[in-house]
Amino acid sequence: MAISVRSFAKINIGLCIGPLRDDGYHELRTLYQTIALHDTVRVDVGRGVGIEIACKDPRVPCDETNTCYRMADRVLRAFKLRNKVRITIEKELPVQGGLGAASSNAVATMLALEKGLKHQLAPLERLQLAAEVGSDLPLFLVGGTVLGTGRGELVYPLEDLPGLPCVIAMPEVGVSTPSAFAEWDTRNGKLTPQESSDRMNVFSHAIFEWLCGRKFSPTGVPSKGWDRAEALLLDLVRTGIGNDFESVVFPKHPALREVKRALERSGAKYVSLSGSGSAVYGLFADKEPAAKAAKSLMDNGVMAKATVTLPRAKYWEEALKNSR
């Protein structure tokens, strides 16, 4: 029986890179936000043994290095089952785009496989398996607005942002996350552990000041609350929350900086690189300027889509909608 699950993307609203840890990862702080763009993952469970991956996009590996393969293997082991599993990935999201596509695909595989096998993992076991496969996976077991700490795998659901119009620009550029981290270390190797810790604390305070709607002390500008999307986004800009990866990715890929500038000129209230890129997104107060901005980018040869952010309840409703 085939089970289909929508595999939604995420954006990072701010991303602060901390010191390199003993395990080789960097300490991170970020605010994840799920959005309505998605791939579709279909899982067929049958008699026999083995895991097969099928995807028409040649950039997607179809062997044991695929995150869906690794997730399916762990789920089968957790249930102590042997089955033939075929996973078909219908791609709409970019590869190496900073939108968490591979991570989301793996979580969709987990959810579909649970349904196909008629077994369900405990919530904590789900999170543990997800974190084993990759840093971004656990956020897709929460959805909506999510604080990410640790290497990104420690996730905490926050009060949801309202659905905001959003444009995702997806230039034909692949950005390697390990290379981006390496470049960050080269440029920022002189930071002491205390300086790194202080930066992360400032970032965390800014996030919580913004989300709690209180006065943001560094600027002294009072929040306008949740009455209008525009006020919410202007308050976000005032916090100065940004993505550290921009400082190392934009110099190597200046076309991405130009895309950011184009979104700013188009009326986006907040524009940022997502993850390590290459996707650049803009948040808008209204749908109409977002649609116009996406069309303008497309007219200039940049792949772009107008979409909306997904609050948590809507995320789960849509993820499993029409699954069978």
Can you describe this structure in just a few lines?
The chain has helices at 67-79, 101-117, 123-133, 177-188, 193-212, 229-239, 246-252, 254-265, 287-299, 312-319; strands spanning 2-20, 26-46, 50-55, 84-90, 145-149, 154-157, 165-169, 270-273, 280-283, 304-308. With 324 residues, it is α+β, with helices and mostly antiparallel strands.
| Class computed from helices, strands and strand pairing | alpha+beta
Give the C-level CATH assignment of the largest domain.
Alpha Beta
Total helices: the number is 10
* Main sheet summary: 6 strands, mixed
Q: What gap, in angstroms, lies between the N and C termini?
A: 8 Å
What's the number of structural domains?
A: 2
Query: What string gives the helices and strands in order?
Result: EEEHEHHEEEHHHHHEEHEH
Strand content: 15-25%
Number of strands: 10
Radius of gyration: 20 Å
What is the residue-mean pLDDT, rounded to a whole number? 92
Give the tags:
324 residues; six-stranded mixed beta sheet; single chain; Ribosomal Protein S5, domain 2; 2 domains; 38% helix; Alpha-Beta Plaits; four-stranded antiparallel beta sheet; globular; alpha+beta; 10 helices
3D structure, described in words:
Helix 1 (67-79) runs parallel beside helix 2, helix 5 (193-212) packs antiparallel against helix 6 (229-239) and helix 7 crosses helix 8 (254-265). Mean pLDDT is 92; it is low at 214-227. The strands form two sheets. Strands 1, 2, 3, 4, 5 and 6 form a six-stranded mixed β-sheet that branches. This protein has a four-stranded antiparallel β-sheet with strand order 8-9-7-10. The chain has helices at residues 67-79, 101-117, 123-133, 177-188, 193-212, 229-239, 246-252, 254-265, 287-299, 312-319, and strands at 2-20, 26-46, 50-55, 84-90, 145-149, 154-157, 165-169, 270-273, 280-283, 304-308. It folds into two domains: 2-161, Ribosomal Protein S5, domain 2, CATH 3.30.230; 165-308, 2-Layer Sandwich (Alpha-Beta Plaits), CATH 3.30.70. With 324 residues, it is an alpha+beta fold.
